[in-house]
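quick one, 231 residues, struct below
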Amino acid sequence: MDIRGKVAIITGVSKGIGRATAEALLAQGMVVAGWGRTAPEGLTHERFQFFGCDVRDEVAVQEALMNTQRELGQEIHVLVNNVGLGVAGEVDGFSSDDWKLMFDTNVHGLFYCTKAVLPQMKRQQLGHIINISSIAGTTGIEKMAGYCATKFAVRGFSQSVFKEVRKDGIKVTCFYPGSTQTNFFDDIPGTEANDAMMQPEDIAATIVYALETPFNFHLVDIEMRPLQPKK
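---
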């Protein structure tokens, strides 16, 4: 798809992979709507607009879409479901509130955003949804059972929706990044972000590649890992 001039929505745009993706898509000529609770500091561009939105609230998601279409036009070509968080801990001592928070953000929010944009994408018979899962969506990780459970859910949701909407010219691609140097690890005891990890810009560049594939060529699952992770 020629993505120049097309409209993309990115959730969790304030930092990390979300911000890097916004910058990459702007560099390729796209119009970008950033959704999040916090605006990306210093990101100013004539084709970028921020819309305050807590994806855990379905009404807020619907309002963000309405505001986006009012400001940027009806057509929505790309949705990047990037926002997510992780809380570590052993299951028998894990906070039920933290468990619910992860599912509300990583799974329910992704569902609300996808559900919101699909009617317009179906009208267009064109669209691409990018869901950011994790390596944690392919294998269990000690003391990360809750996070893994949410990312496995993203995997199953993505593969199911892909089969539902392919007839409508809509692609769904699920990304499974390994360790990436972002703020994600700030709240994960025992692990610190470091230069041996992948960079957010690496993930963003791969998103651009997936979006620019020909119409009848569809990348369904993309797994990425650092070549030489820090031991």
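The beta strands are 7-11, 31-36, 48-52, 78-81, 127-132, 170-177, 221-224.
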